[in-house]
């Protein structure tokens, strides 16, 4: 297998654009010409047929065939034969439960970590690529057997990261406060807050922030830091315990 390659996108649709429109050039350069077909995982949404149609239309317009795992009679075998995996957004709890129910966690991990096939996620699909789904924004509408996810990277991500609105009178907790509460627990990994329009590209030991918006990085016990597109986040790929 080659070096690990991930494209972790905050959101699949950016205001004013179509499905994956804001990151289609990133997808093309990420998948390249070697990949001919992508295995799509639509488990985060209830209507998997409609979701697969939307994804297929997009990927075919970029020159890639797309197979949806929910159409396969053997999901494990579909992962074993895949050239690239794309897990779409929706509800993160529903998605993770389906990955466990179909015994796909070890299979996807093996295909990516040992065989080196590219992994792309957006939103919930980005959440499940990380250590755990503890920092998702979604409601726990179903019970996965564990909150531990694929662990393809040794930190967590908060997709759709929202900054506090200074004009708002809403007194609920901000995203920053919720992440800080997560970090009050022992041994919690870093959390990268990806704003809408941001994505993280991981190639081997290199991780780079891409897209049009920035990100906020939360390390346990430290003040959050602000980062622009182009930031080198490679240090997050080393053992995250070193950062605590």
TrEMBL record:
Signal peptide: none annotated. It comes from the Eukaryota. CDD domains: GAT1_Peptidase_E. It is found in: Cytoplasm. Transmembrane segments: none annotated. Keywords: Cytoplasm, Dipeptidase, Hydrolase, Protease, Serine protease. Its main location: cytoplasm. GO terms for molecular function: dipeptidase activity; serine-type peptidase activity. It is an enzyme of class 3 (hydrolase). One of its GO terms (biological process) is proteolysis. InterPro entries: Class_I_gatase-like (IPR029062), Peptidase_S51 (IPR005320). It catalyses: Dipeptidase E catalyzes the hydrolysis of dipeptides Asp-|-Xaa. It does not act on peptides with N-terminal Glu, Asn or Gln, nor does it cleave isoaspartyl peptides. Its EC number is 3.4.13.21. The keyword Magnesium does not apply. GO terms for cellular component: cytoplasm. Hydrolyzes dipeptides containing N-terminal aspartate residues. Belongs to the peptidase S51 family. This is dipeptidase E. It comes from Psophia crepitans.
């Amino acid at each position: 297998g080659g070096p690990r390659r991930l494209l972790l996108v905050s959101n699949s649709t950016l205001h004013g654009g179509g499905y994956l429109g804001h990151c289609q050039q990133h997808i093309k350069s990420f998948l390249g010409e070697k990949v001919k077909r992508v295995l799509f995982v639509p488990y985060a949404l209830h209507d998997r047929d409609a979701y697969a149609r939307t994804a297929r239309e997009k990927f075919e317009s970029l020159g890639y065939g797309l197979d949806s795992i929910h159409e396969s009679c053997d999901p494990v075998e579909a992962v074993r034969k895949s050239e690239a995996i794309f897990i779409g957004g929706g509800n993160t709890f529903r998605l993770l439960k389906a990955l466990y129910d179909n015994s796909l966690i070890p299979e996807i991990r093996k295909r990516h970590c040992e065989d080196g096939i590219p992994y792309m996620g957006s939103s919930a699909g980005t959440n499940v690529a990380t250590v755990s789904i503890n920092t998702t924004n979604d409601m726990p509408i179903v019970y996965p057997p564990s909150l531990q996810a694929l662990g393809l990277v040794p930190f967590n991500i908060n997709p759709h990261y929202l900054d506090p609105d200074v004009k708002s009178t809403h007194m609920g907790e901000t995203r920053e406060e919720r992440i800080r509460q997560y970090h009050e627990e022992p041994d919690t990994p870093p959390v990268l807050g990806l704003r809408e329009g941001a994505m993280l590209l991981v190639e081997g030991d290199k991780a780079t922030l891409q897209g049009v918006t920035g990100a906020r990085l939360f390390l346990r016990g430290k003040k959050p830091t602000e980062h622009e597109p182009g930031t080198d986040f490679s240090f997050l790929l080393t053992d995250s315990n070193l950062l605590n």
